[in-house]
Amino acid sequence: MTNQKIVVKVGTSSLTQPATGQLALSTIAALVETLSRLRSEGHQVVLVTSGAVGIGCGRLGLTSRPNTLPLKQAIAAVGQGRLMRIYDDLFSNLNQPIAQILLSRRDFVQRSCYVNAYATFRELLQLGVIPVVNENDTVAVDELKFGDNDTLSALVASLIESDWLFLLTDVDRLYSADPRKVPDAEPIISVNSIEELTELEVQADDSGSGWGTGGMVTKVAAARIATNAGVRTVITEGRRPNNIERILQGESLGTQFAPQAQTNKARKHWIAYSLVPAGKLYLDNGALKAVCDGGKSLLAAGITAIEGDFRSSDAVELCDSNGMEIARGLVNYNSNELHKIRGHKSEQILTILGYKGAETVVHRDNLVLMN
Ligand SMILES: Nc1ncnc2c1ncn2[C@@H]1O[C@H](COP(=O)(O)OP(=O)(O)O)[C@@H](O)[C@H]1O
Ligand SMILES: N[C@@H](CCC(=O)OP(=O)(O)O)C(=O)O
């Protein structure tokens, strides 16, 4: 395979030694060699790397991870510089230029920033640079965090319309249960449909199944985001980065998630996954049917309850009566207005509010089903 766009995400568990928390230098060097080789073969490569907090802790001689946000942010600021220095030294030995990109969720929420980030990635990739991405931990605020770099890497892969997303971790693939706790857990080789993926997510939510607590939940969620954007996603072992090349050559290593037919165009994918919902609208059965089966817009008459404090144009979740999200969209009214008009016909909005707003609460062009 030539000229592929490839995003590789490496987790703290692969970058550091499990016993001591020290850097896993041989793994990092092997990763740098693999990525440089992929570049020289003509592929476009992005590295999403964790490790700022872990390496910052090591630098400051701390033995446990920080538990307050300001301390974590301070430690990430120490670790990020060191992390980049290690990468730059290793990549420079192989004459491979790199660039640091620190992103916060805010950069994805505003459509203009999102489009701008795309342009920057495109230029860097055309220049033959490997962008090295991490969350901008030092300025991230709780409500606007990616939460984890698995999600960040899936959003980056979607943004740049990547062909592949590799999630490198400390196990060789996904299993039916955490293999550390359940030795006879079944390996999962491939996930081909959205139904199979949904089944895995249900399993992940079930604490009894054993794998709700591990880092795999965020990886499966990342696979959903990326495969929905047409990106083939693979969970594989960080200690063997050259597995990436073997997988590109067709070997069946790791867990491979097939890309889904892209029902959502880029803008709808952005609404579904980049924005952070600011509230919930509960729909009656008629509205659920109109939105899900009829591809219709949501009207005020079909809303039974509202949660959250949001402004017009914010993203909101559209839920059934149990609070299960079935769609997401950009809302045309703020929460105060919606409390007044919910359950009423569109013709009554002028009388209730004293001004004529939009006819729809969420227009179908701004509405995406969350399958
Ligand atoms: N079903 C599962 N299959 C494989 N690994 C699992 C599963 N459930 C939990 N895990 C655990 O997830 C860990 C990897 O997640 P995490 O530590 O967050 O990695 P990273 O730092 O690479 O993001 C593994 O060490 C494994 O013990
Ligand atoms: N931005 C954080 C990474 C957070 C994260 O998702 O870590 P991991 O689960 O190891 O991929 C850091 O650099 O420490």
Q: How would you concisely characterize the structure shown here?
A:
This protein is an alpha/beta fold and 371 residues long. It is 39% helix and 17% strand. Strand 11 and strand 12 form a beta hairpin.
CATH structural fold name of the largest domain: Carbamate kinase
Summed up, the helix count is 14
- By CATH reckoning, the class of the largest domain would read Alpha Beta
CATH fourth-tier homologous superfamily of the largest domain = Acetylglutamate kinase-like
Percent in strands: 15-25%
Q: Give the overall shape.
A: globular
Count the E strands: 13
Q: What would the average pLDDT be, to the nearest integer?
A: 90
